[in-house]
Amino acid sequence: MERYWEVASTWVVILAASIAVWSFAAATLPVPDYFLPPPSAVLSAFVELMTKGMLPTFIGESLRRILFAALLGLFVGVPLGLLLGISRGIADFAYPVLNFFQSVSGIAWLPLMLIWFGFGERTILVAVNYTVLFPVIFNALLGVRSVPPIYVNALRTLGASRWRIVRDVLVPGALPNIAMGVRLGLAYGWRALIAAEMLVGANGLGFMIFNAQTFHLTARIMLGMAIIGALWVALDYFFLRPLEEATIARWGMVQR
Amino acid sequence: MMRKWRGSALAIGRGAAPFVFILIAWMLVTRTGMLPTMFLPPPSDVARTAWEMLKDGSLWINIGASVGRVLVSLVISVPLAVGLGIFVGLRRKLSPVVEPIAGFFNALSGIAWLPLAVTWFGLGWLSVTFIMFNTIFFLVFYNTLVGVRTVPRIFEHAVRTLGGSRRHIIFQVLIPGAMPNIVTGIRMSIGFGWRALIAAEMIATSTGLGFLIYNASNFHQTDTILVGIVTIGVLWLLTDRLVLQPIERWTVERWGLVSSDR
Amino acid sequence: MTAKITIRGLGHEYVNPFTRERVVALGGIDLEVEDGEFLTVVGPSGCGKTTLLNILAGLLAKTCGTVLLDGREVTGPGPDRGVVFQEFAIMPWRTVEKNIAHGLEIQSVPKQERSAIVRRFVELVGLRGFERKYPHELSGGMKQRVAVARTLAANPEVMLMDEPFAAVDSQTRITLQEELNVIAQSTRKTILFVTHNVEEAVFLGDRCCVLSGRPGRVKALVPVRISRERRRWNLLMSDATFDAAKEKVFGLVREEVGKEV
């Protein structure tokens, strides 16, 4: 308990010190105003955007898009990856393809999507969903393939059907890899989303900070960045990482 | 000897088979004329454009720009991040405080810095390289920090009971023990960094593969876009095969260590 | 009366993927295992004992010969031949009781009956109180007990055990051997037990089948005429019959090892 206070008080000190240093630098550095706005400017930008209702919209749009990608990844990507992984022949065939397309991020496909769909929502969605799907499918496939054969054999000697083996061995065995794939896919996807919003400009946090730069509203940029970071931390720390660790820790499996 | 050649030829064949399949499918789709060439040009067009770009150097210039930025960022940020990560990780009082901050900046890293970078440095290679730099730096720093901190205490005890000094513990236990995390961090940072680079090049500069494909879309030059995309994919595969996998084999796999991914 | 397991002229060959050589793992096995018999299989390393077991289990295909269980040909794996693996192979993501119940789930045994059977076998292997634990919370010996319970609960015709106690410390091993004896006695299952440990083979087996070095053939069948009740380590420490059988089997195995060197 004492340690907790120690850490907490160190934090308060650090926070206060950073704000102080920042304000000082903002006031004294010989650079144009828009270079380094003081913390107070960021705060007022926050208030302004909140009261105008713009901030909730920006955040809402970005979250909506990433959530959609997450659901697609979970309900389409995972089953697809599992299916591809079950048969050795198909898995070996799909592996290089998935690897290649995974490495070409969704953003690289954006210019092509611009030609196909123009500057709109669909372009963003295609880019982001692509970015999330491939790592999910790839890792689900890997997960299935990396289940030690002895578990499959053990179930065969108990007379299990193919379907049973998939359900009782391959899926649980692949879960740590799947969790990792989802986490990686969403990490890439979140960043791809911000980039796509910058390029396509259809609302969202990426658009917010990109647009702000055009008008030198640096306080708004910093606000947007803080929110982008905080949202990902929240998502990763409170949701994704516990999910991943829960599967691994609960089953005591060490993953490579 | 013959057998070995036959074995690797078979392996390459098997690896290439799915792509041949895709290539054929692509060719057939464009043959049917279902889609206008602006949407999906036939592979022959793309190949021709690729050849022209290789000959007149335009592809090389852009590859050079992108790869150059990656290399510069790596060379500067990796040693810095590893060094700082070890430094902070060793300080028991400092590391628990720094870690969450590093985690936050890690989460923030990448393209989100672009508007700020452009505000400070204007459009151009400096902003873009800055993006790569901070992506790589924060990822490697964070992973190194965590790696040093999570080396099991028992190894430290073992060196102590052998009469080892603090110096021994640092160089013989903590740094090697953190290697899996460090290597993972470097590996991941190249992945994230490369993606951030392509995106940044699209927005903020006029050279590089990202710019190449984005610019081409403005002129509806779909074949150029596809050349760019294939180049990106191939470059990444080469990086993975020739750089990342060997690194991992030399260090982590050789030592039979398990890494805790962050 | 026909034997439970009949093996005639069983052979197994394969091609070594690295050296591309043809390897004859089993060179013609002729063996009969009676119903309710505890047969142990010993031999030098590489003699094909595990290959033999895997073929019986249906996890490996034979090259030639016949393998019959109750007069029927053995093809693939199935619940009639329960297997206990050296590496336990219990699902890390299932609790002890769910692991033991696994075979019953597969056989669609109704829930009530399932719980009753599971409870019985949890008792039998002495894991009461651990039903809700996950494998990673258990010691090696306990994991193996779960594996044995799982196989038994599925009520196979025969039990095939592939060096099940090799990955367990020697104290636990002794305990598990004695427990296995008790189980063998009470369930009267036909058991085929592969091991490289001669003492273990003689301690457990009604008969010891000694395999020759590669290519594996039945070198000898050594009966161990000691009643199941007497098979306790404290009783057999200085038992003449036990010592004699041990010496005999040991000598036979040494011969084969000597041939390879």
Which terms would index this structure?
heterotrimer; A: 256 residues; mainly alpha; MetI-like fold; 2 domains; B: 262 residues; 10 helices; 82% helix; globular; disordered C terminus
What is the percent of helical residues of chain A?
over 70%
For the record, the count of structural domains of chain A works out to 2
Radius of gyration of chain A: 23 Å
Provide the structure class of chain A: mainly alpha
User: What name does the CATH topology of chain B carry?
Assistant: MetI-like fold
Main sheet overview of chain B: none
Q: Would you identify the CATH H-level superfamily of the largest domain in chain A?
A: MetI-like
CATH class of chain B: Mainly Alpha
Q: What percent strand of chain A?
A: under 5%
List the secondary-structure elements of chain A in sequence, H or E.
HHHHHHHHHH
Q: What ranges of chain B have pLDDT less than 50 throughout 5 or more consecutive residues?
A: 258-262
Put simply, the count of helices of chain A is 10
Which CATH top level class of the largest domain in chain A fits? Mainly Alpha
Described by the principal axes of the CA atoms, the overall outline of chain B is: globular
Number of distinct helices of chain B: 10
Biggest interface reads:
A-B, 57 and 55 residues
| Count of DSSP strands of chain A | 0
Low-confidence stretches of chain A: none
CATH architecture of chain B: Orthogonal Bundle
